[in-house]
Design goal:
Radius of gyration: 18 Å
Shape: globular
Largest sheet: 9 strands, antiparallel
Helix content: 25-40%
Number of strands: 9
Order of helices and strands: HHHEHEEEEEHEHEEHH
């Protein structure tokens, strides 16, 4: 499993003029985050996108490294115990200017397990991580789950008290994500584990536990939506 120290090393790969050599080495060292490798690990099918694209290390991808426009979508699909699950990644980069080139990036990565029936929306975020918290994105009120250990670790938000109780029972299954943090969004049709390129849950650390993510999301989707 990649440690926080390993992430610090990865983040300094561009230092002091030896960047390109280190970037190339990084692409090899972190090849487990390529789309085809992750699909194989999960037992998923690469339904869309470049099999060699590295989801966790942007500079390992030549177009990103060379400041070229990018419009990449990776979609991995599969099932776990009959529950449909997909990993959806998008990365778009626009380059403008001739002398002073400006690069704008848009990025998203999430794994989603789909429920059979609608359910009340919810959001779960780890209370505190090193150098910052997991940021919530849904306008839902925080509630207690009835489990002090869970309420001390996560912010659970929903308008349905019964959903909070279910989440309190299910969240211990996400304990392996202690290093990356947890950010779950239930939109009423599916349950997503939302990952971040910068910030928490950090995609590189979260994807180290990709099989656990698949299993726990599928179990949770079954519990909240049949």
């Amino acid at each position: 499993m990649l440690t926080v120290v390993g992430l610090v090393i990865a983040a300094t790969l561009l230092y002091a003029g030896r960047g390109f050599l280190k970037i190339n080495r990084a692409g090899a060292d972190y090849a487990q985050y390529r789309a085809d490798r992750i699909a194989q690990q999960l037992g998923f099918t690469l339904a869309e996108g470049d099999p060699g694209w590295n989801l966790a290390l942007a500079v390992a991808n030549p177009d990103m490294r060379n400041n070229k426009p990018v419009d990449m979508k990776i979609r991995l699909t599969g099932t776990h115990q009959g529950v449909p699950v997909e990993l959806l990644y998008t990365c778009r980069a626009e380059i403008s200017g001739v002398v002073n080139r400006v690069k704008k990036e848009w990025w998203s990565c999430r794994m989603t397990a789909f429920a059979r029936q609608p359910f009340p929306p919810f959001e779960v975020a780890t209370c505190q991580m090193p150098h910052g918290a997991v940021e919530r994105t849904q306008p839902l009120p925080p509630v207690n789950t009835g489990r002090p250990d869970i309420d001390a670790t996560y912010v659970v938000a929903t308008q349905e008290p019964a959903m909070a109780q279910v989440l309190g029972e299910m969240l211990p299954g996400f304990a392996p994500f202690g290093q990356s943090g947890v950010h779950l969004v239930g939109d009423g049709t599916g349950v997503s584990f939302v990952m971040e390129k910068e910030g928490w849950p950090l995609v590189m650390l979260a994807l180290d536990q990709a099989p656990v993510m698949k299993e726990q999301l599928a179990v949770l989707a079954q519990r909240v939506g049949g």
